[in-house]
Amino acid sequence: MSARKHTALPKAQILIEALPWLTRHQGKTVVIKFGGNAMIDEELKAAFAQDVVFLHHAGLKPVVVHGGGPQISAQLDLQGIVSEFKAGLRVTTPEAMDVVRMVLAGQVQRELVGLLNQHGPLAVGMTGEDAHTITATQHFPQIDGAPVDIGRVGEITEINTGAIEALLADGRIPVVSSIARSQDDHHVYNVNADTAAAALAAALGAETLMVLTDVEGLYEDWPNSDDVISRLTATELEKLLPELASGMVPKMEGCLHAVRNGVTTARVIDGRVQHSILLEIFTDEGIGTMVVPDAVPGPEGDS
């Protein structure tokens, strides 16, 4: 008699395919920057929360870092505060900073913590202000060769991982809003979430930095081609930076900083795809662009 072919067999094959990756990432810290469409689409938000909880239960230590550009813009509009951008960064007056702080820590973070905690008492929200986790000084971008004052926008000067490490040791999932406080003037600053995620990944000695975005990855020859670069080294990425679209620059600069400061891999993945985090970490093909340090070849088949 022939053995019955069970319809659930493909599920077993998928789990077996994930086994080498589960072994490789066991006990490792993964910093995930949450942003883009994944932040505003209800189904994508729910799938993101499921992915992060799955990583936790699979033995990884996820840390989530988030911004909230669309939500901040919407709230500023409601309050009649004009959104102005210079050098790709939001000009942040003290009044605007109050809104940024309220939206990030009081709206976006609370919603994300709530989604994660539907699966158990796991997530704990915090900002970069808490326990001096992120310290910053005022950032003055260069425009036409001269520094420009764009208000309460911060440049990271120091990371203190103690509070995050304590939460991880307690089996929690830290959810960090990209807000920092200055030691110099005691002001609160808005910090680019891509930059904050990369700095935290390096300071935590994370295995992986994952940046969710609204594109498939880093394109080889955009807009002439939509072929995605699956893997490149830090030096290869550095050469490409001057040619990148402005929206990709902080993400790829963050990836470069991470792998040059001890993070094993940095990945840019499409947050518009449900369960993109699991597809990237636990499948043979992967779906995004992976950046690796110059001296470390990538695992065979990983992407």
TrEMBL record:
InterPro entries named among the record's database cross-references: AceGlu_kinase-like_sf, AcgluKinase_fam, ArgB, Asp/Glu/Uridylate_kinase, Glu/AcGlu_kinase, NAGK-C
Pathway(s) it belongs to: Amino-acid biosynthesis; L-arginine biosynthesis; N(2)-acetyl-L-ornithine from L-glutamate: step 2/4
Reactions it catalyzes: N-acetyl-L-glutamate + ATP = N-acetyl-L-glutamyl 5-phosphate + ADP
Superkingdom, taxonomy of origin: Bacteria
GO cellular component, one term: cytoplasm
Residues the record lists as binding substrate: G68, G69, R90, N190
Summary of the function given for this chain in its UniProt record: Catalyzes the ATP-dependent phosphorylation of N-acetyl-L-glutamate.
Family of this protein: Belongs to the acetylglutamate kinase family. ArgB subfamily.
NCBIfam families in the cross-refs: argB (TIGR00761)
Name assigned to this protein: Acetylglutamate kinase
Phylogenetic lineage: Bacteria, Bacillati, Actinomycetota, Actinomycetes, Kitasatosporales
Gene designation: argB
